[in-house]
């Protein structure tokens, strides 16, 4: 094993240990660990350029996240979602089980478009206020959302499947169609986990099916009582339909890709601020300061992820890890290469970008597999089962949209969702093996 490979695998272990034991924040780990490693390897004079290249690659995403959070924070304060929240709360009758399972189903359906940020925006827009008013733990919404989107992320118009099909010159019929039973099994697991979380919240909140209606009205009354005078001043009920139309137009523009997402949200934020608080410059400035703390934290995380991926790529640590993986497989285990690919994709897909994994590592594994009459399509399918936990990676930009909208931290989301998300991948892998979708 080369020095770079040893360093790469060691970085993964150190990063996970520090993150899971709360010894360092994810942002600081993303920035400091790769820089220290690069300097130690003798790349000191080039570290600044490597880091800057990584930052440039994620800068558009950072801008999009910042202004998306600004826009929807304004809409929430203006009261645009209040009627929707009340209607949903009446429908689920104050039952945490129905709320959490419904959140999962909604996120799964919306994510069929293959766009993570849009899915998170719509899901949190519709459900976050309901979760808050019922007193459901804040981490649950991002947990179930990221889990189900991890399953639906395998659709061929999504990122990973499109990349692996391109890298190995395959069609959707070769990769995606055979994986549909695995996706169904993975989705069923996520729904089961959501139901489990709902039962836990029922017990914690002292709500049963019989008193769910009371919980609904208690939640509404509690929220109205807690709304302070300043929050009430920010409501704009007379602009409700103006805000709705503006949001619908913005969402439509996102879907048809009228402009880049970051530009659309910048325009939307400016319009939302002027329309709702345009006659009061002080309120506009106060809103910017109020939202800024949470927004800056998430933007800093994205930029830190850019430094991490930039240094990992330009120091060739990723290439060394890939070569070590293929060269370390004993010939007698060559016939198990599909299973090895599936198992190794869990750590690789977590710590590498989709581009690095599907364009850098998977083709090497596919080439090696030909020695044992295992097709590229089977390797491609095996490489995708780890999508169940890929979205928890600190290098996935869409996850920061979810964190920003829900107020959760990456540390908390990792502790809440990592193990059940690994369970999703295990369920999908077992399904694939049993049905012969990938060879054992």
From TrEMBL:
Keyword Membrane: yes
GO cellular component, one term: membrane
Keywords from the named record: Membrane, Transmembrane, Transmembrane helix, Transport
Compartment(s): Membrane
Chain ranges of the Citrate transporter-like domain: 17-386
Superkingdom assignment: Bacteria
Membrane topology type: Multi-pass membrane protein
InterPro entries reported in the protein's UniProt record: Cit_transptr-like_dom (IPR004680), Citrate_transporter (IPR014738)
NCBIfam families: citMHS
Protein name: Citrate transporter, CitM family protein
């Amino acid at each position: 094993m080369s020095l770079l490979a040893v360093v790469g695998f060691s970085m993964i272990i150190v990063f996970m240990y520090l993150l899971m034991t709360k010894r360092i924040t994810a942002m600081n780990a993303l920035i400091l660990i790769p820089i220290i490693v690069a300097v130690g390897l003798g790349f000191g004079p080039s570290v600044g350029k490597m880091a800057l290249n990584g930052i440039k690659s994620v800068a558009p995403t950072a801008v999009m996240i910042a202004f998306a959070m600004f826009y929807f924070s304004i809409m929430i304060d203006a009261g645009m979602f209040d009627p929707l929240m009340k209607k949903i709360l009446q429908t689920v009758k104050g039952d945490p089980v129905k709320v959490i399972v419904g959140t999962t189903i909604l996120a799964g359906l919306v994510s069929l478009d293959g766009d993570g940020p849009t899915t998170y925006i719509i899901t949190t827009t519709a459900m976050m206020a309901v979760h808050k008013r019922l007193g459901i733990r804040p981490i649950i919404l991002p947990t179930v959302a990221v889990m189900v989107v991890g399953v639906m992320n395998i659709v061929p118009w999504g990122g990973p499947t499109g990349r692996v099909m391109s890298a190995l010159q395959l069609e959707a019929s070769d990769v995606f169609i055979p994986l549909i039973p695995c996706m169904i099994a993975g989705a069923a697991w996520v729904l089961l986990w959501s139901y489990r979380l709902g039962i836990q919240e029922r017990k914690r909140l002292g709500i049963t099916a019989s008193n769910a209606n009371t919980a609904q009205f208690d939640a509404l009354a509690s929220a109205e009582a807690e709304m302070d005078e300043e929050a009430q001043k920010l409501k704009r009920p007379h602009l409700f339909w103006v805000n709705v139309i503006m949001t619908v137009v913005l969402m439509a523009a996102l879907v048809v890709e009228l402009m880049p997402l970051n530009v659309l949200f910048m325009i939307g934020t400016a319009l939302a601020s002027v329309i709702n608080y345009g006659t009061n410059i002080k309120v506009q400035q106060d809103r910017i300061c109020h939202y800024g703390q949470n927004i800056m934290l998430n933007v800093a995380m994205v930029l830190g992820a850019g430094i991490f991926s930039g240094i990992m790529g330009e120091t060739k640590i990723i290439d060394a890890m890939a070569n070590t993986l293929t060269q370390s497989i004993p010939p007698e285990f060559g016939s198990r290469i599909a299973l090895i690919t599936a198992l190794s994709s869990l750590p690789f897909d977590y710590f590498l970008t989709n581009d690095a994994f599907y364009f850098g590592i998977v083709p090497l594994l596919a080439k090696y597999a030909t020695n044992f009459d295992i097709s590229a399509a089977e390797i491609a399918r095996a490489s995708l089962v780890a999508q169940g936990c890929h979205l928890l990676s600190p290098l996935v930009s869409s996850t920061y949209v979810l964190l920003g909208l829900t107020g959760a931290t990456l540390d908390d989301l990792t502790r809440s969702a990592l193990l059940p998300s690994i369970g999703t991948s295990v369920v999908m892998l077992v399904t694939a093996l049993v049905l012969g979708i990938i060879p054992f």
